[in-house]
Amino acid sequence: MPDDERADGRLHLQHGPIDLIIGVDGCDDDRRHAAFSAAEQRFRSVLEELVAELPMLKAEMRADAPMLQGSVARRMQHAVRPFASTHFITPMAAVAGAVADEILDTMLAPFPTGEKPARVYVNNGGDIALHLQADAAFQVKIAREDGATLGYFRVEGSSPQRGIATSGRGGRSLSFGIADSVTILAGNAASADAAASLVGNAVDLPGHPAIDRVPATDLVDDSDLGARLVVRACGRLAPGDVETALARGVEEAERFIAAGHIARAALFLQDQARIAEAPKEPAPFSRLVPEPSAMEHDRCLNRKSANF
Question: Is the dihedral of CA 109, 113, 118, 124 positive or negative?
Answer without folding.
Answer: positive
